Amino acid sequence: MAPRLMVCDGCCCGRMEKGNDVVPIDALKAAWEEHDLKEHVKLSISGCLGPCSMKNVSLMMDGSDRIWLGGLGSNEHYDALVTWAKSIANGGTMSDLPI
Fold first, then answer.
1. Which CATH architecture has domain 4-93?
2. Whose CA is closest to 97, among 79, 38, 37?
3. Long-range CB contacts (within 8 A, 24+) of 28-32
4. Nearest 5 degrees, angle CA 49-CA 34-CA 64?
5. What's the CA gap between 21 and 55, in Å, rounded?
6. Three-state SS string across the chain, please?
7. Phi, psi (rounded to 5 degrees) for 58
8. Nearest C-alpha neighbor of 77 from the set 94, 56, 91
9. CA triplet 85, 28, 67: central angle to 5 degrees?
10. pLDDT tens sequence for the chain (99 residues)
11. What is the rounded CA–CA span in Å between residue 65 and residue 59?
12. What is the Cα gyration radius of the chain?
């Protein structure tokens, strides 16, 4: 089973009116398409993942391994997730996270 990246776009994450930065959903989807990542890392845009206090959260999963990321706000953060997925596509592991 391929690793999965779940990006929260729920009740708080990405909601500027709640003081959070925008989550670049379209840019992430475009990057997955551009770099042909969907067979290597499944990208899921999710409703609320739960830990709203972490703000703009994402959950990386590979089997039983889970890595929570919070406080994502800049394009650099999301670019790093794309870089990580590209690394996985080239044989990398969950521990190769560039953040």
1. 3-Layer(aba) Sandwich (3.40)
2. 79
3. 28/78, 28/81, 28/82, 31/82, 31/85, 32/82, 32/85
4. 35
5. 9
6. CCCEEEEECCCCCCCHHHCCCCCCHHHHHHHHHHCCCCCCCEEEEECCCCCHHHCCCEEEEECCEEEEECCCCCHHHHHHHHHHHHHHHCCCCHHHCCC
7. -140, 150
8. 56
9. 50
10. 799 999 999 999 999 999 999 999 999 999 999 999 999 999 999 999 999 899 999 999 998 889 999 999 999 999 999 999 999 999 887 766 665
11. 10
12. 13
Q: Is the dihedral of CA 45, 5, 26, 81 positive or negative?
A: positive
| Parallel/antiparallel/unpaired status of strands 42-46 and 4-8 | parallel
Alpha carbon distance 26, 31 (integer Å):
9
The side-by-side arrangement of strands in the sheet containing 42-46 is: 42-46, 4-8, 58-62, 65-69
